[in-house]
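Order emerges. One example.
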Amino acid sequence: MKKFKQAGNFTLAAGILLTLAALAHFFLGYPAVNETIRAENAGPETAQTLRVIWIFSSITMCAMGLWAVFLSGDLKTGSRRARMQGLIWGTALLLFAAVGQTFEFPNYHLVSFGVIGLLVLLPLLISSAAFRNAG
């Protein structure tokens, strides 16, 4: 069905965007983290913590992006289980963007996570009846 294919394609696009963002996050951001650690003269424990958090968040972003890429195929077949995962995935990114705004407003960088989450959420919500009626 056309609605399934649209939801799958939007999820694929969101997954690719998040995977690319994760690569940029690590390869462009990690040197900046190290420079800030040096410039601020952070202690060894603080420096290690910041580096570990940065690496973990990069890997997590990449894993979430790849999850969406793989999920997109099941969405195209009308899988209700894949739809539920997509709703959770998109909601998580949207909540992350919203909560991030409470700490630093406006934070346009975090808005991009909300946009990526909406790329998945909106097509899934619009096509909810089609997924409900799927075998």
